[in-house]
Amino acid sequence: MAFNIKCPRSLAYSPSGEFLAIGCKSVGFPALELWDVSCTDDFSVVSGKIFHKKYGDVLCIEWTVSELNTLKKIRKHHLPITIIRFSPNMRYLAAGDAEGNIVVYNWSMCTPYLFVKSRRKLSVVFDWHPWTGVDLAISEDVPASIVLLHVPSKRIVAYYQQNNKKFSINSISFSKVTGELLVSTSVR
Question: Which of 21, 24, 29, 89 is found 20 to 30 A from 63 (Cα to Cα)?
Answer without folding.
Answer: 29
